[in-house]
Amino acid sequence: MRSPALRHVLTHLVTPLLMCLGMGLAYMGAFVTPEPHHLPVAVVGAGPKAKVFAQTVKDKAGDKLDVRTVPDRSEAVDLLKSRDITGAYVPSAKSPELVVATAASDMGAMAVEKVFTPVAAQRGEVLKVTDVAPPVDDDPTGQGLFFLLIAVSIGAYASVAALGAAGAGLPLRIRALLAVGVSGVVSVIGAALAGPVFHLAHHDLATVWAMSWLYSAGILFIGVGLHTFLKRWTTLAMMVLFVMLNFTSSGGLFRPELQNGFFGTLHSFWNGAGFVEGIRSLLYFDRDGLSGNVGTLVAWLVVGLLVTAVAGAVERARARGSVREEAVPQVEEAEEEPAESVAV
Length: 344
Known about the structure:
By secondary structure, the chain is α/β, with parallel strands linked by helices. The chain contains 12 helices and 5 strands.
């Protein structure tokens, strides 16, 4: 291509076009066709009749459901609150009951209701649905935490672009300190949105803030470190890591049981899932599983600190190399001076 300016523009257009492709593949692959995939449910009952009924449901559903039996309703409720199952069917000749926890997943509750409503109808019974863990009235679908994730994520990864563009000339230690400060501001914004602004969190707001800081600091340190190596490709890398793969696997809209195996696997260790599931545990499920979710966020922060430390070592090595290259011509000039004086 003869025009350097045109080549420069076309090269920079590669990033947004790849973002377009990646966002389409990720979001449409994760959200367009949600289907149950080994969705865990329970049938309440200890006798042979309950076991036969559970097996019949399993045979009809195939791989869509994982059906177990539990001896009583209280155990089913415990499993729902620990999010080991998505729904529990309590058979009854007069009024069968479906027990769900919509705070864990509104879409999951709808999926199990769709499964068991026809089962009750075939028996001429009306299904009663009981929600043992409803979300707060200010977030009736329970999806507000997903949008909180989006807000905090944008604040973090967009700040990486600003630090890379405007702070490229600053020493890495200064950029790292800025990352700490920015993550603090982002976490305060996140806590304000979750608390006084939209009332998603009616308690434990300080812990919501702390988790927001862990999450945003991990993203910022990973981004600051990656910029040393990727330069202008850092934005694309951050979009892949913390938008395309992150939002889709977070469980904010669909839990992994309603997605394919790829996103379900990411859900087990990705930082967005740790953030969303951790706050769910905190707000609705008596902190069940919270330590594991916080551990996920801490692990991502440690990765960010390690990437930044490696980047710092590389930048120092580059700086020493530049100093040596500048010193070489001066040495050569000094060696040439005696020869010139002899010639004179």
